Every structure is written in C-alpha cells, then in structure tokens.
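Spend some time on the protein that follows and explain the fold to me:
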Amino acid sequence: MRKPKKLEDIPAWTPKPVQRRQLWQGPPQREMTRAEYFRPNTAVRSPVPSGEWWTPPEKSKGLRHFKFTSKGNSRGAAVVDDVSVESESGIERKCMLVLRARPDTLRLVEQTPRIEYVGADGEVHEHFFDLKVFKTCGRTVAFDVKPSALVAGSGIREQHILMAPQMSRRDADAILLMTERMFSYIDLFNAKEMRLAIKQDFYPEDDETVGRLIDRMKGPTPIADLVAKSRLAGYGFNAVVRAIAVGRLRMTETRMIDYPAVVAPVRTEA
C-alpha cells in the first residue's frame, strides 16, 4: 500500500494557457481628417429656411384654466392648429389627440362649453366640459373625459341625463362621455404620428410632389409605393402622413401608419 504524500510534496497546480480566437476587427482604422469630419452629410437636407421672427402659438381659448405647478398630476399643454390646448390629465391629452386626428374634426377647444344646470338636488350647478369638437359638417359635440374605472362612481352619466335637456344648441349639438376604452393603441399611435409630421418643419415642395402623385392615383396603393415614386425617402413618408392628416388620403384598414399600410385617395365632389 502506497503511503500518502505529504502536502508539501504535492506540486502546485498551474492552469494551462488557453488560446483565444482572435475576432476579425475589420480593416485597420485611421484617424478622420478635419475635412472629412466637417464634410456635409448628403443623407440629411439643409434645415428649412425660417423667418426672421418667430410667431408664438395663440393662447388657450378654453373658458377654464388650471395651474401646472403640482408634481402629482399629468397636466400639460400641446400646440394644436397653432393654438395652445391645455389638458388636465394624461387620458384627456390622449383623447384630444385622437379626436383631432379624426377626418371629420375641424378643430377643438378645451374646457368649454360652460353651462349651468339644475341638479337632482334642485340646486343650480356649474359644469365645464373637457373638450368641444367642431366637426366639418357644422355640428359641435361636447365631451367629458373620464377613466373607465371612475365612470360609475363619478355619476357623470346621470349628470349628462340632467344636462342634455337644459343645454342650448349654442353650447353643443350633442354631449358624449369618452374613456380610454373608446380608442385603441393604433388610434393613439396614428394620432401622434400625424401630429409629429405636421408639427415639424418641412419643405412645401415635398407635399406638392406627393400631392401630384395622389392626383394620379387610380385606387389604393401601399405607402411604400408613393414614397418610392416621390424619390424623397423619409421626407416623402412624412409628406404622405400629412396627406392622411389633412384628409387627402385615407387608410383602407385599421392599422398603424407604416410603409406596408395601404392608402386610398379621397376625392372631393366638384
């Protein structure tokens, strides 16, 4: 039987060196020259010329205003149709964007109309609607915006039943309650896409180029085809989105505005 070796007689273990595979790092890099650094990027056009003076948007036309100083709310304002539109909550802002993006909406005003009505208790109450939408047909609709979870407890439906017969046609032709369940994620995405395309600076020639293509359209076509024929790349896509926003094009199905989406021209009767 072999005697066990003493601890000091056992040689220390040393790991064998592992050969690592050298990944290809590409061609040797060189420092960029000053001329190359400042060379204009041909993929990006020069900024749109702006006027000497900046015209601020018009002030809010709502009849009720609120403070924006509290940290515990989602109050804010957005510029819509060159007018500041205030919103008292996140869902109110989303509803405003979705309603404005609808093709039958001409314009909208927040926190209006203001009405007085006799409540169930026999007292006179004051109420400000969250939004008033002016439609292209000439009708107006007053909207109250509520989270769906708070509708039952707020009693807003019962209030609308009392308000409707006491309202004047000058206030609104109809009143509606809107919650987040009345529009989809796709509706909100497209509304934001339209507002972004309209809000940014752009060359009017882009819209004119896409407009000529729309005039020659015989039927539905993918957005990618319009962009390719315009030869404007991403600028052409933005022009197509603006055409959808102003009602020259319409989506043929409910889906996000993207290159594969199919659009059709909107013909106005002479």
Residues 59 and 84 are 5 Å apart (CA to CA). The chain has a mean pLDDT of 88. The helical segments are 34-37, 90-101, 148-154, 156-163, 185-199, 204-215, 223-230, 234-245. Residues 185-199 form the longest helix (15 residues).
